[in-house]
Amino acid sequence: MHDESARDVAVTKHAVVIAGGGPTGLMLAAELALARVDVAIVERRATQDLAGSRAGGLHARTIEVLDQRGVADRFLAEGKTAQVAAFATTPLDISDFPTRHNYGLALWQNHFERILAAWVDELGVPNYRAREVTDFEQDDTGVDITLSDGRSLRAQYLVGCDGGRSLIRKKAGIEFPGWDPSVSYLIAEAAMASEPKLGMRWGDKGVYGIGKLDDGKRVRVVWGEVQVKQGDEPTLDELREALIAVDGTDYGIHDVTWLSRFTDATRQAASYRKGRVLLAGDAAHVHSPANGQGLNLGVQDAVNLGWKLAQVVQGLSPESLLDTYQAERHPIGARVLKHTMAATAINRGDERTQALRETMAELLKMDAPRKRYAGMISGLDIHYDLGAGHPLLGRRMPDLEVVTESGSRRVFTLLHEARPVLLDLGEPGALDIGPWADRVRKVDARYEGAWELPVLGAVAAPTAVLVRPDGHVAWVGEGTDHGLRSALTTWFGVPTAP
């Protein structure tokens, strides 16, 4: 990215400033840059390098989101596709789901961030590195932001993507209710003098595991602690003690290149917005890493928020459009919190919990429960409540192969520029978007075949769909244009009179 040093004085005003350049902040920056919004990132790391990597991959909907922007192949080229969806330790196969990406991607977070950061750099987003937001004040027209090097920035909006201990959330006075941790884990990458027991096991405090890293010599350790502890700066002695408490040996662990701690603390911001300050990713919600939801949830927050914030900044939509970010994403976050709490509880090692785990595993082998939970964990079943109507309304648009005047096209390729699309599948010219033509791309197309949605199955074929930049359907035509103008106004603003 275009790093801004402390000596730079040219640009101190931006439409949007993002605090935090992790996965959520980077994705949000990309979305805003695609919409031609002046956005900048403030990131405490001097480089994008990440020691260790908690998140281990992408779920199917996140891969779809990247495909919608035309960059999925960059990630697929460096990861390994696999069936990664699971509830606790019960695998959930999605290979029969109707999506081009009916799999997950094993790709450590440090690689994900590196690839994502390179794309954001291509989009020309400035990055104020090696510094943090230390204070801010908002007024009716914007936010004054103070950085740790004394520099000041001015933005119309500030978005906190600065993690679970978010300073932005705290200084905005947004409450963070939830539950304190019941377990804590040490996670490390290191060498061991003697051969350890490899694989995952259950114990009184949950899951214990040691696995080989890519080099075949070093290991990655995830280990429950006997006593619940907090703070992400544990010591090597604490790791040795934890290993000895369970296995009677520390395996001569040494040369630790990364050591951290995580817990199942579960909290969600009471509001994702306060005035001109918004939250996304871990700043808005923290939870157990069970089911691998965190990174994916944050990236999808960013894609929901980005186009809405862009339209408000550009004066195309009223500020009330931002309220739909809270309305749509807060319930999705709450659902993830609920199920990660359940997955953490079911991973305990006592005999009663083991019986419950085995019962759930048997249940999830049945087709309907498998599809329900797999759809939820993969993100493919996300449904925003946009009112009654066609089953497509509020759901992800399938990546159909449609025939346009320029030839065969995948629907996702129509979303590469992060612009809304009206896909007219009926009589050519029957629908007119009139004064919204400068904001919404209209595509006349034909499609022959059944419409299938994950979990729901077959749905009635519509004659048109209005697809938001995030890939969710905002309006469905069923032979008429009834409700189209209302949907265009709701999501893309009142047209400016010529």
Protein architecture, described:
The protein is an alpha+beta fold. It has three domains: 2-56 and 108-177 and 267-347, FAD/NAD(P)-binding domain; 184-263, Alpha-Beta Plaits, CATH 3.30.70.2450; 401-492, Glutaredoxin, CATH 3.40.30. Helices cover 27% and strands 27% of the residues. Strands 1, 2, 3, 9, 10, 11, 12, 20 and 21 form a nine-stranded mixed β-sheet that branches. A six-stranded mixed β-sheet has the order 24-23-26-25-29-30, covered by helices on one side. It has a five-stranded antiparallel β-sheet with strand order 15-16-17-14-18, sandwiched between helices. α1 (23-34) runs parallel beside α4 (109-122) and α1 packs parallel to α7 (294-313). The longest helix is centred in the last third of the chain and has 24 residues, at 323-346. It starts with a strand and ends in a 6-residue tail after the last helix.
